[in-house]
Every structure is written in C-alpha cells, then in structure tokens.
Design brief:
Layout (H helix, E strand, L loop, with lengths): L2 H12 L24 E6 L4 E5 L5 E2 L4 H13 L19 H6 L10 H15 L2 H13 L5 E2 L1 H9 L2 H12 L7 H12 L1 E3 L1 H7 L1 H4 L13 H14 L5 H7 L4 E3 L4 E6 L3 E6 L10 H14 L5
Antiparallel strand pairs: 1-2, 1-8, 3-5, 4-5, 6-7, 7-8
Helix pairs in contact: 1-13, 2-4, 2-5, 2-11, 4-7, 4-8, 5-8, 5-9, 6-8, 7-8
Length: about 300
C-alpha cells in the first residue's frame, strides 16, 4: 500500500469541507482555533508513519484521551471496570444527566463524559496519578517526549465544568466513585487537555492495531481486551453519531471536540485525522469525510 499517495488523494477529497462546521466554543480555550486546518496521518503496525497537511501540528485531544484511559484501566486492573460502566451506545448527548439518572448512576459506556469520569476514577485508584500515568504512556508510545498538557485548556475546562461536576456528584451519590469528586475532575480535565499531533496519536494508538502489543513489543492488553476497546470504539466512540460513523467508515474510532479522530484497522494500521470544524454532534466534518474516503480507496474496514 502506497500510504502517502492514498493520504494525498484523501486530503484532496476532503479539501472542500475544510473550514465547515463550528469549533467547540463552549470551551473558551478552543473557541479561537482556526477551522481552516487539516492533517491526516497513518501508522502501520511496524511503526512507519506517513502524513499530509497539518499532521505534525499539536491540537487538543479532548475525548480521544478516553480510549487511552480505558486501555490503561484494563491493563492495570482487568475487566472489573465493566461492573461500573456499560458497553452500550447512548443515543443521547455525551454529557446527558437524564440518562444517568434513569440508569441509577451507571454510565451507558466509557466514552460519554460520565463513563469517562468513572474510568478516570478507577485509574486514579489503580495508579495514584491518573493524568500523569496517561501522559507517560502517550509519550512512550508516540516516541515524542514533548507531548504535554495544555494548562490553559485544563483551566478553561475546569472553570466551565459545571455539567461534568454534576455528573460526578450524581455518580458519587450512588457510590460509583471511589475518590473525591474534585480529584476525579482535576485528572479528567488534565487528560482531556493533552496536546498531540496526528503523527503522535496514530503511533500512540498502534497497540489497538497490534491486538494489544505496545510499540516495544511488550503486551499492554490481552488480545481479548484489545478487541473490547476496539468494539466499544466502533459502537460508542463518536458520541451519538456512532451508528452513522460505523455505517460510513466501518472502523473503530474515537473522536474529540478538538477536531481529532483516531481510527483503527486491526492488523494493519491506525489513522488520525484532524480538522477543527465540528458538526452538530461534535465530530470533525472534514475528518469523518476523510476517513470515509480512506476506507473507500483501500477497501479496508472491520466488515
């Protein structure tokens, strides 16, 4: 596969859509991001990486971090996390309180905000420092020691995080958090504030294409648990548009309101695309189109 040629064709296809959509202006630190940016990278299972456009420019990963925190919880503590969070698509906004109340404090899946808070809480219990544990992992897997938090984004999210605080307190009232709510929120906001490029994210998520093997060949997850992460990404990874994403793209994917999307082709490669303009459901307009075109060109999907 000539990845470079494919990516260039994908970028040409997506170009008319770059700039469409809106940035996540409810997070003030993201409100001023230029929607005219676009990058895409692919990393094969051997760690070779290719990219076009703004593929080496760091951006805020936001909810993409949830896939890594889930993997680290499974690696550290096994599958007991599934006693505290479900694996079903939500069909509701990612910060819904109504659904959480209906289901008695058990989040529908680990990629809505309530579920990610439970996962962060568990990672904090297992490691004593959830956010630094994730940062260290991302630096190691991407091979980039400069991957870091964006303090301005973390502060912005904290100052405008009332809905997340409400979710956390509600779950705490049902006994579904072990750590103090302020601790869980702090680590959650730091995780979402990590800045990475398409290159970094494509490499860092490579363990999901390698069925649980890290970049150095050691095993992070058993094959079964790597499959679980990919499965939940496929059904729940793109907010309440997961069905449409599976229909169009046909790959496990995790998006973030920073405009990034990570996608996995097990046994072959991982992709990351970034374009900050979001559709009404919080997914990158140009990013979804680019991944759709990539699978059309290559014929690769999980189906």
């Amino acid at each position: 596969m000539d990845y470079q040629a494919v990516l260039e064709e994908v970028a040409d296809f997506a170009r008319p859509l770059i700039g469409r959509g809106q940035v996540a202006d409810y997070i003030p630190a993201l409100a001023e991001v230029d929607t005219g940016q676009f990058g895409i990278a692919v990393a094969d299972v051997d760690g070779r990486v290719y990219g076009v456009g703004d593929w080496e420019r760091p951006f805020s990963v936001q909810s993409i971090s949830k896939a890594f925190s889930l993997a680290l919880v499974l690696a550290e503590g096994g599958d007991r996390i599934w006693e505290r969070v479900g694996t079903e698509p939500s069909g509701n906004p990612f910060n819904s309180l109504v659904q959480l109340e209906y289901e008695h404090g058990i989040p529908r899946n680990p990629f809505i905000n309530a579920g990610a808070l439970v996962v962060t809480d568990r990672l904090q219990t297992l490691t004593g420092d959830a956010s630094t544990t994730m940062l260290d992992f991302l630096r190691a897997e991407s091979g980039n020691p400069d991957v870091s938090f964006d303090a301005a984004v973390a502060r912005s999210e904290s100052e405008h995080g009332d809905r997340n605080a409400a979710l956390a307190h509600f779950m705490a009232s049902y006994g579904n958090l072990d750590n103090p709510v302020p601790t869980v929120l702090e680590h959650y906001f730091w995780q979402c504030s990590v800045e990475m490029s398409c290159r970094d994210l494509a490499l860092a998520s490579g363990f999901l294409a390698r069925h649980g093997l890290r970049a150095d060949g050691t095993r992070l997850l058993p094959r079964r648990e790597a499959k679980q992460v990919n499965a939940v990404m496929l059904t729940c990874g793109t907010y309440d548009a997961a069905g449409d994403f599976a229909y169009r793209v046909g790959l496990p994917g995790k998006s973030g309101v920073g405009g990034g999307i990570v996608a996995v082709i097990p046994g072959r490669c991982t992709l990351c695309v970034w374009s900050p303009g979001l559709d009404a459901r919080g997914n990158s307009v140009a990013g979804v189109a680019a991944l759709d075109h990539f699978t059309t060109l290559t014929g690769w999907s999980v189906f």
